[in-house]
Amino acid sequence: MPHNVNERLDELEIRASYQDRLLEELNAVVTDCNLRIDQLTRQNRQLQDMVKNLGGSLEESPDE
């Protein structure tokens, strides 16, 4: 544990720097996750539309 004020200040600066870097990294991860969620949401909607259209085609099929 630091004994004098300068050592304490150095330790606090190191911790603050580490936390800033970690915060930037976490922000990048969250941003990437949000982009992926948006992409998956669009794909899900497209698949839902495809299933709805396919369902309508099956009901109209003369083979049944």
UniProtKB/TrEMBL annotation:
Stretches assigned to coiled coil: 23-57
rRNA-binding keyword on record? no
Q: Does the keyword Coiled coil apply?
A: yes
Q: Name one Pfam family in it.
A: SlyX
Q: Which UniProt keywords apply?
A: Coiled coil
PANTHER family, alphabetized: PROTEIN SLYX
Its recorded name reads SlyX family protein
